[in-house]
Amino acid sequence: MSYKDDIKALAQLREAQQGKWASISPENVARMRAQNRFQTGLDIARYTAKIMREDMAAYDADTAQYTQSLGCWHGFIGQQKLISIKKHFGTTKRRYLYLSGWMVAALRSEFGPLPDQSMHEKTTVSGLIEELYTFLRQADAWELNHLFRDLEEAQKAEDKARADELIAKIDNHETHVVPIIADIDAGFGNAEATYLLAKQMIEAGACCIQIENQVSDEKQCGHQDGKVTVPHEDFLAKINAVRYAFLELGVEDGVIVARTDSLGAGLTQKIAVTKEPGDLGDQYNSFLDGDEITSASDIDNGDVVIKQNGKLVKVKRLASGLFQFKPGTGEDRVVLDCITSLQNGADLLWIETEKPHVGQIAAMVNRIRAEVPDAKLVYNNSPSFNWTLNFRQQVFDAWEKEGKDLSAYDRASLMSAEYDDTELGKLADEWTRNFQRDAAREAGIFHHLITLPTYHTAALSTDNLAKGYFGDEGMLAYVAGVQRREIREGIATVKHQDMAGSNIGDDHKEFFHGEAALKAGGKDNTMNQFG
């Protein structure tokens, strides 16, 4: 409903109250409704799920239409990201938020900073989703509040053309609310625990849940050693649990991202159940490392024996009780994981790799697409990669194959600043710049994300301010390094009172109290110094 139509409907509703609502302004109510578009988290989940499905279809038609996100660990960070996107690009289309389990563990746990091993309170995840959407909805209210204030001024000046222009902007306002891809780790327990947490996440607004095939109680960061995977049957039960949660809550087009850590995981907690040769459990067990045995005398106390490819094999078991996969089987296990997940209810894939290499990713995706042609990836452009060194070494290796003279370069030392302005360094930067476009086109990557960029930006900016402020620069460090840049670059937070809702609150006070309202935004408000 348009702003004007809403005012008319509200005016009729007020008239029906026979004077009891005489102090209620239909214009003010319509304004408040416009500034609060989403009533519940489920409203958000249904709205954003539709966006993701449309974006997935657009990518299938044209790989240049890939999507992106940055991981945000606080509602304010997510809000400022979306405000910045709208300011610089005019639209939030194909830009999402990523909720990183790593950052929840490191920054949001009541235990204090924790490693990414699912030790944090699981409800913190759904709590952060709700917080992010609270701040994004507030960004809508903040932006629309300025439009409504401008509309009041235009109406007072009897400038109809300006008023009509502003009403059109209000009616066509693009929300800051965008899809969140939310990390549920390995499900925080059994399938029932996964279902219960998925419900909380969806009710908080999540339209997309990412789940990985690691063991819940042995979960490791995807870029750490010691990862332990589970048989497909266990993982598919959790995918089913998430789908049931979506369907129960009426988010029928909710999106599930199935992540495989098999490329870097050399261990499994248990042997899969198998009923006949070649079934899914048998395929999983075929990757287990072991020694062929020919008699019972080859079996020691505590050994585990399975039938593998028609032979009896004593599986290699570690002191931890975990079983070991055959070396060099990671890629084959990834392909089987991905095909199996897509054939059993997952919508998107996540392959955790050890480096950002388009060729490596494409090799796996092409094998997956031989079975599932529309397979698509969510890919972690991880800060755990040394991007500079990786791409410089990729250029070095490519030149070496071409027979180019590399005597001016030391492959092991390519991170050095001395290579920044070299031909190799500049080409590596160009490859880095084009990585997302190239990988979207050649390796099936629908969504590019950086898991924890704002963790690093917060640390870097704080270091720069602390170095100057507590050093010789003193107050100039803040003024020149922060405030002056905010003013000149049009960063809305320079008026931090307004950003935190002061003007919205003043307007509400006037709605509620009329001329008796005690407002904060008068002539003595120092925010007026910023124009």
UniProtKB/TrEMBL annotation:
The keyword Lyase applies. Keywords: Lyase, Magnesium, Metal-binding. Mg(2+) binds at D183. GO terms for biological process: carboxylic acid metabolic process. It holds the Pfam family ICL. One of its GO terms (molecular function) is metal ion binding. The active site is at C221 (proton acceptor). InterPro entries: ICL/PEPM, Isocitrate_lyase, Pyrv/PenolPyrv_kinase-like_dom, Pyrv_kinase-like_dom_sf. Can also use Mn(2+) ion. CDD domains: ICL_PEPM. Its cofactor is Mg(2+). It comes from the Bacteria. PANTHER family: BIFUNCTIONAL GLYOXYLATE CYCLE PROTEIN, ISOCITRATE LYASE/MALATE SYNTHASE. NCBIfam families: PRK06498.1. This is Isocitrate lyase. It comes from Halomonas chromatireducens. The lineage of its organism: Bacteria, Pseudomonadati, Pseudomonadota, Gammaproteobacteria, Oceanospirillales.
